[in-house]
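Quick question, first post here. What does this chain look like in 3D?
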Amino acid sequence: MGLKSAGFDVINATNGQDGINQTKSQKPDLVLLDQIMPDMLGNEVLTTLKQDPEVNKIPIILISNYNESQMMKDAIAQGAVDYILKYQIETKDLVDKVKSLLGELNKTDAGTTPAPTNTPGENNPTGSA
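> Answer (accepted):
Ran it through. Tokens below.
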């Protein structure tokens, strides 16, 4: 069961810049951000989004196949709420993690519709979770 079949609205982006643009225009409740993309690293997108006062409160989860500890530490230090290694998580567990995080956020803001953004990278070209 992916995010769409779990009832979430999913906005796909084709690269990092598209992800930045989509996040700024759509203002989703959560961003799922791939670390490796054709035009820039996920950490670069994360930095850009966290410096923008219009979107810097949107929680961002980075997703990667690369178990590079410094990259993970940098992402968390820059404000990512989590860093998930793709090979260590099943789709159902990702859906549960998104539900849990959005549930925590929606406790104070009832009535919003979650719309996670998945910015695909080279290893996730369709953007589906």
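The chain has a mean pLDDT of 84.
The CA atoms of residues 37 and 122 lie 6 Å apart.
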